[in-house]
């Protein structure tokens, strides 16, 4: 008789599983997410959906969130429209640059299979 192996998962901030790059143009922010290890890619694709990212940025009220996958690089790019308070030059917000928004995405919690923990950056984990 074969028994299904129950795997444990860890809740970690996204920056433990990936790093990011970002830029802004007008009222649009581009945030790229790059997996630290190819083994983490499928998990990131599953959890970092357009809807999940839109929820993470709900307080910024993005007009739209689009995701572009780059599987050969284990990377994805998110384009968030109308998220920069009109753009860097128009905003009254002191920190409206898209670069600051990448930190918000990198802090998003993700569930990682415990078997993949060795591919995570850093050492602290939360169950």
From TrEMBL:
InterPro entries: AtuA-like_ferredoxin_dom. It holds the Pfam family AtuA_ferredoxin. Residues 12-110 form the AtuA-like ferredoxin-fold domain. PANTHER family: PTHR47708, SI:CH73-132F6.5. This is AtuA-like ferredoxin-fold domain-containing protein. The lineage of its organism: Bacteria, Pseudomonadati, Pseudomonadota, Betaproteobacteria, Burkholderiales.
């Amino acid at each position: 008789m074969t028994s299904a192996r129950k795997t444990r998962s860890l809740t970690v901030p996204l920056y433990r599983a990936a790093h990011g790059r970002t830029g802004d143009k007008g009222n649009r922010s581009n945030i790229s997410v790059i997996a630290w290890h190819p083994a983490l890619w499928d998990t990131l694709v599953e959890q970092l959906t357009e809807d999940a990212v839109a929820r993470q940025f709900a307080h910024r009220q993005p007009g739209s969130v689009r995701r572009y996958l780059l599987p050969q690089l284990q990377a994805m790019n998110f384009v968030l429209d109308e998220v920069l308070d009109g753009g860097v030059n128009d905003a009254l917000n002191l920190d409206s640059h898209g670069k600051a928004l990448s930190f918000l995405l990198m802090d998003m919690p993700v569930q990682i299979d415990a078997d993949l923990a060795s591919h995570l950056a850093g050492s602290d984990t939360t169950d």
